[in-house]
Amino acid sequence: MGKTAVYPGSFDPITNGHIDIIKRGLGIFDNLIILIGFNPNKSSLFSVEERTELIRGVIGDDKRLTVDSYSGLLIDYVKDSEACCILRGLRAMSDFEYEFQLALMNRRLDRRVETVFLMTGSKWFYCNSRIIKEAASLGGSVKGMVPDSVLKKLKVKFPTMKNNN
Ligand code: ADP
Fold first, then answer.
1. What is the pTM of this model?
2. Of the candidates 8, 16, 36, 105, which lies 20 to 30 Å from 78 by C-alpha distance?
3. Average pLDDT score over the chain
């Protein structure tokens, strides 16, 4: 069966930074589960179904990758899926404190599950879904930060968004 890791996030929407982590994660693990974590009480730009569809479109039919969604405790999902690790990406220092707390909490909940961090590719240091949405909503171009399929969907949500940079 090989080693499986769960890569959790909100993926609202998937960005080139996420894709970089997914590709590099496949160099370490045999299989990756891209897990859309959602809170039914929190609003998001894209629905879970839209996010799933966008991720599926980007990853194609690579058998090592699956997409799933979950609103419960991450560590329960990891145990149920028989994954060994949680994969996370690290960007700026601002990510570090939150990621550190999250990793320690998950370790407290189950010591057998390790969190593995991949440092962001330098190109994707500032690539984050929230800032992308903010820029797009104000008409800014986010070309090159998200796949073209995501760019198209953002254009539907934010018609004033420019297409070039
Ligand atoms: P975001 O923070 O962009 O809204 P998520 O909550 O979906 O994204 O993040 C899921 C995981 O992917 C987190 O571990 C986050 O640090 C990582 N990640 C997101 N964007 C990048 C990036 N540009 N480079 C490296 N890791 C990233």
1. 0.95
2. 16
3. 95
Does the domain spanning 4-125 belong to CATH 3.40.50.620? yes
Q: What is the mean pLDDT of residues 5-17?
A: 98
C-beta of residue 17 within 8 angstroms of C-beta of residue 91: yes
pLDDT, tens digit (0-9, with 9 covering 90-100), for 92-144: 888 899 999 999 999 999 999 999 999 998 999 989 999 999 999 999 999 99
* Domain ranges, ordered by start, for the chain: 4-125
Indicate the helix (H) or strand (E) that contains 136: helix 129-137
Closest of 70, 81, 71, 76 to residue 5, by C-alpha? 81
Report the separation in Å between the CA atom of 128 and the middle of ligand 1, taken as the mean of its atom positions. Answer: 6
Closest CA relative to residue 144, chosen from 162, 117, 120: 162
C-alpha span between 73 and 80 (Å, rounded): 11
Total residue count of the chain as it appears in this document: 165
Cβ of 17 closer than 6 Å to ligand 1, yes or no, is yes
